[in-house]
Inverse folding.
């Protein structure tokens, strides 16, 4: 059975960067929600958002958190991370601040979103890996993510299996 992923990211500032990662085709991900679809879900309130997240995570092997400048600490990002981890799915982070957005701009590196989520007596950051491409050039960042994403994904599933 093919492995599938759930992509978690801060929609407004990072949707174009996330689209680049999703469109690499390295792993099969959840379909992108259009602006209209997401607005419809949000109008349904917290319960509707939780149902949507549950449905998107269903059948996935791993959650890939695409980390932008303001991803850490967001309510729904945290919910997705916890839901995936507690559901026995692999969880991995990939910093995407080095990818250019539609306006050809990069952004600053954000905090590790796993640092604020507790896991037993420590944080999830002590278990879950967050990969930061070692390049400044957007094309090199893209290639680094594309070349390594499948391995990171599989490693996250293996790590989760140990807990």
């Amino acid at each position: 059975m093919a492995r599938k992923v759930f992509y978690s990211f801060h929609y407004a500032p990072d949707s174009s960067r996330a689209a680049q990662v999703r469109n690499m085709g390295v792993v099969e991900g959840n379909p992108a929600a259009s602006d209209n679809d997401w607005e419809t879900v949000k109008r349904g309130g917290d319960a509707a958002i939780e149902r949507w997240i549950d449905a998107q995570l269903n059948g996935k092997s791993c959650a890939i958190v695409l980390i932008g400048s303001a991803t850490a600490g967001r309510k729904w990002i945290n919910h997705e991370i916890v839901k995936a981890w507690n559901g026995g799915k692999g969880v991995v982070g990939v910093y995407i601040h080095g990818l250019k957005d539609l306006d050809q701009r990069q952004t600053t590196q954000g905090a590790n979103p796993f640092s604020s989520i507790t896991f037993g007596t420590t944080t999830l950051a002590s278990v879950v890996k967050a990969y930061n491409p070692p390049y400044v050039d957007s094309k090199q960042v893209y290639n680094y993510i594309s070349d390594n994403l499948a391995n990171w994904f599989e490693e996250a599933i293996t790590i989760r299996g140990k807990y």
Q: What stands out?
A: The helical segments are 11-22, 35-43, 45-57, 75-86, 138-161. The first helix runs from residue 11 to 22. The chain is about 45% helix and 15% strand. The two ends are 23 Å apart (CA to CA).
